[in-house]
């Protein structure tokens, strides 16, 4: 294989378009040679941006699977329930796969993807972007170098963000489990993956979880509120008003996320945003949607050796996805606040601060996840170019193991019990 990696983007939405930008910045390392998306606007935009020939543009991933293989790799960035089928079919065609998270929406489907990639001899990298964030990578490096001694307890918070939650999980694509997946899988498979990684892949012994959909329910609709924010008399007093989240932003010239998402077939402007709020899902009152996913959930885990974990996912926060972590060890304490890592050493009573340098271009950092998206694509393209899967930090087996933790936690929540696991691997019994 040449060092020049040819990629087909399957699903040219928010994520697909963003990852494809790597080719614009690094044209000698990656080229986008094909695109599949049923949305003409998205497909044509990507085609134009990357000068993709007409014969390599498709309205469905199946048309790519029906063709002779014409690239090295595919970026699968389709909606959650559309991961398994393209991943399995395209792995069988011999494409290396960059697959958006969650891998798939059931444990069986995830297992099938992993097994197919292994038997087909193709590389699989799941987009656990945080694994590629230089500062977050530093946490693992510090743990491995004994900065806190033996890890005893991990406390981890994912603050989803009040308007982010309203956008994605009340009005948007991830609001309803039957159409996407449960909130812990959709939002926090990243977090359980990090936790699993920080434990060094230790075996989970017990897991419990509680959570529900709070607040964004019909019974909490304020008196006098309309079904659409554009018609609402009490909109001014509502922090979740679509007028505030979208219309005020576009009036200030902001056309990126989340505004870009609601105008799926045009460039956002005041007119198209108003039209989307008038008729589309994003103009609905947050108390009148068909949402059912949890707004807050906790997961408690005991790993082998007595290491305990407390994880929280909360919708009602100022910060958007800026994780907070504390790792307590036998020799010290590590805290991460999204900007820096602080390590306190019990013996010397000294505090050390760590920050990180990133070589990601500014334009990529603007697209989301800080600079992690850039480093993620960089790792995948390097792995494919050099045929070296060790450059992939979120490969098949490890990702499957961390996704299993998510399925187990959700099972514990739904069945209202502690799930116990016995040797050698995931065999369940209940108490
Ligand atoms: N890694 C992360 O942190 C992260 C962040 C956000 C979203 N995601 C995940 O990325 C995936 C995509 O999310 P998004 O925000 O880009 O959504 P999106 O809706 O913007 O993009 C999905 C695209 O897939 C296209 N599509 C649908 N059916 C198709 C088919 N049959 N063939 C080809 N394309 C098809 C849609 O038309 C759409 O353009 C989801 O699974 C989501 O959960 C991951």
Overview of this protein structure:
It contains 14 helices and 16 strands. The chain is of the alpha/beta class and 431 residues long. It has helices at 14-25, 40-50, 61-66, 84-92, 107-120, 134-144, 162-171, 183-198, 242-251, 259-262, 270-279, 362-366, 372-385, 396-415; strands at 5-10, 30-36, 57-58, 73-76, 96-99, 124-126, 151-159, 204-212, 296-303, 308-314, 324-329, 332-336, 341-345, 351-354, 419-422, 427-430. The strands form 2 sheets. Strands 14-13-12-11-7-10-9-8-15-16 form a 10-stranded mixed β-sheet. Strands 3-2-1-4-5-6 form a 6-stranded parallel β-sheet, with helices on both faces. The longest helix is centred in the last third of the chain and has 20 residues, at 396-415. The protein has 3 domains: 5-122, 3-Layer(aba) Sandwich (Rossmann fold), CATH 3.40.50; 131-215 and 292-361 and 394-430, Dihydrodipicolinate Reductase, domain 2, CATH 3.30.360; 218-283, no CATH class. Bound molecules: nicotinamide-adenine-dinucleotide.
């Amino acid at each position: 294989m040449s060092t020049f990696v040819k990629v087909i983007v399957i699903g040219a939405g928010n994520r697909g378009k963003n990852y494809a930008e790597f080719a614009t910045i690094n044209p000698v390392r990656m080229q986008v040679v094909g695109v599949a998306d049923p949305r003409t606007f998205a497909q044509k935009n990507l085609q134009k941006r990357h000068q993709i020939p007409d014969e390599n543009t498709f309205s469905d991933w199946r048309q790519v699977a029906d063709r002779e293989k014409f690239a090295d790799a595919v970026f699968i960035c389709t909606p959650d329930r559309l991961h398994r089928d393209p991943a399995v079919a395209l792995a069988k065609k011999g494409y290396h796969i960059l697959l958006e998270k969650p891998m798939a929406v059931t444990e069986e489907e995830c297992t099938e993807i992993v097994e197919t990639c292994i038997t087909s001899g193709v590389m699989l990298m799941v987009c656990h972007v945080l694994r590629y964030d230089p500062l977050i990578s530093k946490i693992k490096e510090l743990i491995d170098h004994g900065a806190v001694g033996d890890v005893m307890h991990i406390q981890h918070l994912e603050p989803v963000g009040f308007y982010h939650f309203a956008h994605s999980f009340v009005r948007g694509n991830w609001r309803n489990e039957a159409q996407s997946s449960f909130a812990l899988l959709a939002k926090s498979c990243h977090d359980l993956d990090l936790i699993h990684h920080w434990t060094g892949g230790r075996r989970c012994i017990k897991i419990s979880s509680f959570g529900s959909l709070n607040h964004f329910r019909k019974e909490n609709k304020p008196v006098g509120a309309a079904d659409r924010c554009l018609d609402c008399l009490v909109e001014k007093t509502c922090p979740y008003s679509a007028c505030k989240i979208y219309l005020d932003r576009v009036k200030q010239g902001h056309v990126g996320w989340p505004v870009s998402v609601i105008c799926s077939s045009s460039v956002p402007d005041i007119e198209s945003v108003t039209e989307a709020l008038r008729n589309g899902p994003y103009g609905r009152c947050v108390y009148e949607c068909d949402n059912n996913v949890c707004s807050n959930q906790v997961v408690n885990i005991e790993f082998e050796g007595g290491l305990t974990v407390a994880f929280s996912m909360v919708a009602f926060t100022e910060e958007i996805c800026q994780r907070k972590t504390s790792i307590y060890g036998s020799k010290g304490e590590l805290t991460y606040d999204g900007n820096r890592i602080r390590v306190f050493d019990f013996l010397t009573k000294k505090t050390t601060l760590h920050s990180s340098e990133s070589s990601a271009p500014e334009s990529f950092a603007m697209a989301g996840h800080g600079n992690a998206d850039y480093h993620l694509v960089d790792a995948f393209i390097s792995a494919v170019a050099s045929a070296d899967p060790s450059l992939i930090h979120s490969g098949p087996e490890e990702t499957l193991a961390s996704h299993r933790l998510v399925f187990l936690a959700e099972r514990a929540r739904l069945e209202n019990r502690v799930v116990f696991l016995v040797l050698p691997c995931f065999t369940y019994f209940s108490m």
